[in-house]
Amino acid sequence: MGLTLCRWLSDGHHRKKTSSSSSSSSFHSFSVTPPIRLAVLLDTPPVPPGHPRSQWSQTHLSPNLKTCSSGGCVSRDRVEQSSDGVRAAVGVVTGLHIWEVLWETQHRGSHALLGVSTQKCPLQTSGYTALIGGDSSSWGWQLSTNRLCHDGKEAGQYPKGGATEVLRVPDRILLVVDADAGTLGYVVDNCFLGIAFTDLPKGSELFPAVSCVWGGAKICLRYLCGMTHDPPALQTLSRFSVRQHLRMNRIHVAFPPAVRRLLLNTTDETL
Asked: Got the DSSP string for 13-24?
């Protein structure tokens, strides 16, 4: 996405996509064209590490979960017959926001859910069940079955489009929350998979959240970027349009420094 193109512009050449690109992904056929605000945001370089929204809460989590010193990762103790959840330390009430979640596929088990919750969602219970999506104040995607969960019920298959088999969700997933519209979606292998939920409560603080049952599981959270409900600025839209054109047509240009800084959205005078 944006980071790939930024590196290309900085280096002065286009790097080939890796094998994890959307063109070689099983999710490619389920990719949905994102709305313009989301498309611009997906093309935006991430904020620096250490953002307050990049931390799991050290108080709103199961006693079987432990956060690392930076707060960006949480790990589960090797206990049995327990479902354990955690919320992010900082939620959102307005705006469009993207988080990156890293969760190794072999460390998920039978009930691995990624989604959002309010502060009312329970974060620990006995047995193995879906905590995130298990009540009316949380919404989750069951990664091992591709099923959506809300209010203790399954809410359909995701991505939508008639998948006949369970798709293997890779280690890296992007969580897309539009608090203004009350929607939740996901990006996998650079593919926006469309809106998963449309009934998120507007005006309530929403937190990225996970629940897991796998002993030793480690889940890392990073806030990438966000924007307000206002339309993107003309300069932002112009930058996005040029970058899209360059990427689609594989154009190689020796940009003047000022143009390079504009396209990279940076003030670094060394570029």
From this structure: SPPPP-TTSGGG
